[in-house]
Amino acid sequence: MSAVGGVVAGIALGVALITVGTTSHTTPLKIVGVVLLVLAAALAGGLFVVPPNESRVLILFGRYVGTVAEAGWWWCNPFTKRERVSLRVRNFQSERIKVNDASGNPIEIAAVVVWHIIDTARAVFDVADYEQFVVVQSETSLRQLASQYAYDDYKQDSISLRANADEVRESLQAELQARLRVAGIEILETRLTHLAYAPEIAEVMLRRQQAEAILAARKTMVQGAVTLVQMAVSQLADSDLIELDPERKAAMVSNLMVVLSGDHSPTPVLNTGSLYT
Prior knowledge:
Layout: H1 2-24, H2 27-43, E1 47-50, E2 54-60, E3 63-68, E4 72-75, E5 81-86, E6 90-93, E7 97-100, E8 106-117, H3 120-125, H4 130-148, H5 165-180, E9 185-197, H6 199-239, H7 246-261
């Protein structure tokens, strides 16, 4: 800021000397004032303003000389090129891209990436266009992610895109951060904004999901029914209320399994005869 004050003071002094020289008809004073004013005006070409959350990368004769990231009014060599680089947090919303998942099924996937620049020199000098670099690397990482995981894991023993949102998000962020580090960019957040089967297989895969859900529900019902039947038979045998021979025990187990595993509520039937008649 002292350099800024010097330039302003030089302009003011030059104007003052010219004014005094003109009124007093002192030619040398006027010449000094003109020279000082021209010099100060030339130096004023180095004045620049840095708004909040912005920076200026300074390049003098093709050589990087530093970065000004503090907001304020600054001065540098007038021959210095000042490259503007924003430090604000920015979002990138990817397009919906079609790619095959780990199971070979075509899916549509999209994501949002929240990022900002932490190294202005690398952003300017190490990549041609850091904004386009974010776009290309984000879509590349998204394709890589989709090919690593299946859309859905029907065996439920591995990570899937649909069921493990947190793990998938962390994997995408780590992959993208590794790619963008060269450009001085930090990834603050990534998350999937769209995930679906491709239209040409969506209906078929929906039926498969429904069948898998029904099968899983049936499995749970049967497991629960077996547990309940085991408890009932064991408690009846221990209570000595009735004596169950193998045939009666088999009949009771069969009836209980039908009742507990059925789709509909059972209809009570009163048995007035004997199991053996």
